[in-house]
Amino acid sequence: MATTITVHTQIELDAALAGAVEHETEIFIVSPETELISVQTTKKICIVARGSSHVVARGSSHVVARGSSHVVAWGSVQIRAVHAVSVVSHSKFVVVTQQHPAAQITGPATVIPVPPILTATDWIVYYGAQPSEDQDDTVILYKAVRDNYCSSHGFLYEPGTLPQAPDWDGGKDECGGGLHFCATPLSCLCFDIDATRFVACPVRISDIVVHQNPVYPQKIKAPGLCAPCWEVDRYGNALSSTIPAHEETTP
């Protein structure tokens, strides 16, 4: 008989995955719409999202199913099939964004095929990153930081400065070796749940590196900013006291 575990957060899920036994564990994810949950495992276990959870195959929570994971969904569920996962739908209201051509999708569902994200432009379009208003070759990305404007790794993103990575690796590795950003402030919370501030970061599109088959597809890396950063709220609205002079707008 399978062991059933219900989780509500990324921390609970990670703990459940660590102790999961192949073919003998079922994990039920029940989380709010704002919670992005990523399933990263090579174990052959069953991941089930219910109700209005949002499954990224990776019901409205976000679940990312990778490796040989199996996802079952019913109700108002959204699934993003990032790897060659198996998705079984029990409802016509399940929406599957198919990012991997080998993903197996069965049952009633609306399937939206997505071309692979291979370039910075592909990533910008898919995640809806906003271009700079005054520079065509620049996009505005975001970083979640603490009260002192430092990231969880201690790197400073003080408004008005132009942070540059001291360890840029030319884009070789997905993690480390550069500065990392998301397309929206709220997306950044997946990487630092203790963040209290958000910083808008102008990044030159030609500097952005998108990795193939990434573990964390919602983030990209770059060697640094191309213009000074400024503080925003969690929805990307600028806090006027931190906007650099070249970014100010007249009412």
Could you list some keywords that capture this structure?
single chain; 251 residues; 2 domains; six-stranded parallel β-sheet; four-stranded antiparallel β-sheet; 17 strands
Explain briefly what this protein structure is.
The protein contains 3 helices and 17 strands. It is mainly β. The strands form 5 sheets. A 6-stranded parallel beta sheet has the order 1-2-4-6-8-10, covered by helices on one side. Strands 12-13-15-17 form a 4-stranded antiparallel beta sheet.
Please describe what this structure looks like:
- The chain has 3 helices and 17 strands.
- It has about 250 residues and is mostly beta strands.
- The strands form 5 sheets. It has a 6-stranded parallel sheet, with helices on one face. Strands 12-13-15-17 form a 4-stranded antiparallel sheet. Strands 7-9-11 form a 3-stranded parallel sheet, with no helix packed on it.
Low-confidence stretches: 51-55, 57-62, 247-251
pLDDT averaged over residues: 80
Work out the number of β strands.
17
Structural class: mainly beta
Describe the sheet with the most strands.
6 strands, parallel
Count of DSSP helices? 3
Q: Outline, from the CA principal axes?
A: globular
What is the ordering of alpha helices and beta strands?
A: EHEEEEEEEEEEHEEEHEEE
Instruction: Indicate the radius of gyration in whole angstroms.
Output: 19 Å
CA-CA gap between termini: 65 Å
Give me the side-by-side strand order of the main sheet.
1-2-4-6-8-10
Number of domains: 2
Helix content: under 10%
Tell me what portion of residues adopts beta-strand conformation. Answer: 25-35%
